[in-house]
Amino acid sequence: MSDVGAAPVVGALPRGLDPAQVARARFRRTLLGTPVALIGAVLVGIVLVVAVTAPVLAPYSPVAQIAKPLLPPGTTHMLGTDEFGRDELSRLIWGARVSLYVGGLAVLIALGLGATAGVLAGFFGGWVDDVIMRIMDVVLSLPALVLAIAITSVLGPTLTNAMLAIGLVYAPTFARVARGPTLTVVRVPYIEAARSIGASSWRIIARHVLPNVAAPILVQMTVSFSTAILTEAALSFLGLGTQPPTASWGLMLSAARQYMLIDPWIAVLPGFAIALTVLGFNLLGDGLRDLLDPRMRAL
Amino acid sequence: MRYLARRAVWTVVALLGVSVLIFLLVRLLPGNIVDIIAGTEGQLGREQRAAILREFGLDKPLVVQYFLWLGNMLQGNFGWSFRTSQPVAVLIASRLPITIELALLSVLSVAFVGIPLGVAASVSRSMRVRTLVQVVGVLGLSLPNFWVAVLLIIGASSLFGWLPALIYVTPWADPWVNIQQMFLPVLSLALGLSAVVVRMTRSSMLEVLGQDFIRVARAKGLATRAILLRHALRNALVPIVTVLGLQTGFLLGGVVITEQIFGLPGLGWTLLNGVYQRDYPVVQGTVMVFAVTFVLVNLLVDLLYTYLDPRIRYE
């Protein structure tokens, strides 16, 4: 471990600098200075741009059956066609949308449920803490994918339900991440001071607790984004997520399985797209963690 | 001891919570459960419906149903499949060994490949090894194991013209065929996990190697090999075991997909078939077994700590 803590770096800066400026400088140095985080940011950026500009970027419609099935990569269809004669490249491009959309909303659901529960548990303590965290432990007693499969099987296999299932499954992680710093902050004198001048619990949470929880939550969001995308792909792969004919990477990979020995392309490409996206978020998450929490520095 | 007792009690409580969760989940089913059981929609008379509800005990209040279900489960009765009328417990008992074989082989390969590689990487302090290990570790987390499985199948068939037999053979019937069948699935599960373990082993080893007692060992002239294995690795094991324990969830999830891809009729395969056929007793039973396994493995990991590092004493 060659940890160079963030503190001495800041301390070495000339005095009289605006703290915001220092923070920004440190942010730039850490995030863009380490190649790992930079690669992550670039990958995530590319996927984001592709997802947003899909209607312009995709040469064909993702669902139109316009050519012979299982064409190899060529000039009219850059990456060939799938088993229904749909343009593979266009489907990959539109698939980015599905992945980010499902991943994003799932993370927001997990964040909304989990972080709220975690902050409340840490702030109020006592039986509130016990009840909330025990419920979270129950959810954590099941392997995530198994629970997600069970939930989607009951709710019905649709995109929305997959999103909901992923959100529910990963909520406890956010609860734990949010509870820790809350517990620490609550014991700090300035909270007592705030209480003694009559600030309400909600005001204290909003003004003093949330800012302290924000950094670890941000890291967790980035990392969870990658897990959520992987889980969506897995559910769709199993036929429990996105339904045909929507272009989703997991679904494309699953459909390609039947033809993988005749036409390996259509099995390799969607997985590659998933891997690159997930890799991007993981690298970015590692970088953010180094930046925001030097103690948890990935080695 | 007191810690152990508390931990055991909590394990039971968590599993009870899981059972309530699974029970309620299945009761939330959209659509009428009678139609799902009978596989028909709207063709049954009122009396036939009532008869089915009675037969499956679904006419009783929810709380009574839950305790009946739980009581039966504790006696080894997981109910009967909606589709084949086979006892779910028998079904699970016949599938479980396959999953256990797959999971154990994967964990063993990870331990015997990942840990030695991590130790080897810890000897070098070069930036290149560090970056390599870091990259491999992140890749292991990022590559979807179902994609790795598909790539392995494509690779094995196009490079070696080889594919394992499709019908599962038990190790007792034909160990050689069985090992061939397990090879690719285990590889697809172990690759990702090993990458993570290599990374953790290296960093944990480096931390230990920087400590004073290692310098003492070196100074008194111990062989590097003895220092690495007897002194350093022993002390570095706790975080490595933690990571392995944390990965159990991924492993159990991965098992579901891997069994599906390679046609291994294990527990995950049974769960998915239950889901596809809306055979809810089977789904409930298999999910419950997954939860028990997961919770027990976590308990085991906790207990392993005190063995690996006697300084850890639970209060």
What is the structure about, briefly put?
Helices cover 72% and strands 0% of the residues of chain A.
Task: Lay out the secondary structure.
The complex is a heterodimer of chains A (299) and B (315).
Chain A: H1 6-11, H2 19-33, H3 35-52, H4 54-57, H5 88-124, H6 126-140, H7 144-155, H8 159-186, H9 189-196, H10 201-237, H11 249-256, H12 265-292
Helix pairs in contact in A: 2-12, 3-5, 3-12, 5-6, 5-8, 5-10, 5-12, 6-8, 7-8, 8-10, 10-11, 10-12, 11-12
Chain B: H1 2-27, H2 33-38, H3 46-55, H4 62-74, H5 88-123, H6 127-142, H7 145-159, H8 175-209, H9 212-219, H10 224-246, H11 248-262, H12 267-276, H13 280-308
Helix pairs in contact in B: 1-13, 5-8, 5-13, 6-8, 7-8, 7-11, 8-10, 8-11, 10-13, 11-12, 12-13
Describe this structure in words.
The complex is a heterodimer of chains A (299) and B (315). Chain A has twelve helices and no strands. Chain A is mostly helical and 299 residues long. The N terminus of chain A is likely disordered. Chain B is mainly alpha-helical and 315 residues long. The N and C termini of chain B lie close together (8 Å). At the A-B interface, α6, α7, α10 and α12 of A face α1, α6, α7, α8 and α11 of B.
Order of helices and strands of chain B: HHHHHHHHHHHHH
**DSSP strand content of chain B:** under 5%
Radius of gyration of chain B, in Å, reads 24 Å
Number of strands of chain B: 0
Estimate the global geometry of chain B from the Cα principal axes: globular
Given helix and strand content, the structural type of chain A is mainly alpha
The major β-sheet of chain A equals: none
Average pLDDT of chain B, rounded to a whole number, is 83
Helix content of chain A: over 70%
Distance between the termini of chain A: 6 Å
- Detail the poorly predicted runs of chain A: 1-13
As a whole number of angstroms, the C-alpha radius of gyration of chain A is 23 Å
- Output mean pLDDT of chain A: 82
Principal-axis shape of chain A equals elongated
Number of helices of chain B: 13
Largest sheet of chain B: none
Listing every helix as H and every strand as E from the N terminus to the C terminus, the arrangement of chain A reads: HHHHHHHHHHHH
| N-C termini distance of chain B | 8 Å
Topology, number of strands of chain A: 0
Oligomeric nature of the chains? heterodimer
The low-confidence runs of chain B, each spanning 5 or more residues with pLDDT under 50, are none
